[in-house]
Amino acid sequence: MAKRVAVVLAGCGVFDGSEIHEASAVLVHLSREGAQAEVYAPNIPQMHVVDHMKGQPTPEQRNVLVESARIARGNIRDLAKLDVKGLDALIIPGGFGVAKNLSTWATQGKNCSISREVEDVLRAFHAAQKPIGLCCISPVLAAKIFPGCELTVGHDTECEQWPYAKTAESMKELGCRHVNKHVGEIHVDGRNKLVSTSAFMCNAPIHEIYDGIGKMVQEVVRLA
């Protein structure tokens, strides 16, 4: 039987939704592993819409589920309808939508709140001891919900290669154990069944990011 893996998206586009290359890489690697991806997103308004040419917010209003459907080619479900009983694992790609639409990390950092639907889903998979894959910024969701867990968002020292390294320090302040890893590596928290990789938290060639996500997906499927 093919493993059924829920993939939760946060919109469409790095600055206000899911990072498209990360989401695509997750779906491609799941297919390669023979797993069945089931894509979900919350049916809520986006925090805001960003013009990706200018990097500036616009007056538009968009819906997270509707925008996520672009990546899923229309084959998507409302996150409120997710039933953990019929699924083997969960993966959440990164992108600023995780920090803006699935949580308030973008504006509140470690003091953020997590969307109730998203928190319920994470807790349900965790309670069922089913693996959870997280990449880029999405590990902050687990850091907030599961104190003492082990995760990586790459490195904790800011430099040109690691421009978002301060995220690791905020995660540590939540009681998370952050483990430094290169972009092509993953970290596995066996006790909590959390598999994380840095993806675009690192300023790296896109094929290296793709390969790191592949290792994350492989391990999530193996654990499922």
Automatic annotation (TrEMBL):
Transmembrane segments: none annotated. Coiled coil: none annotated. InterPro entries: Class_I_gatase-like (IPR029062). PANTHER family: ES1 PROTEIN HOMOLOG, MITOCHONDRIAL. This is GAL3A protein. It comes from Climacteris rufus. The gene is Gatd3a_0.
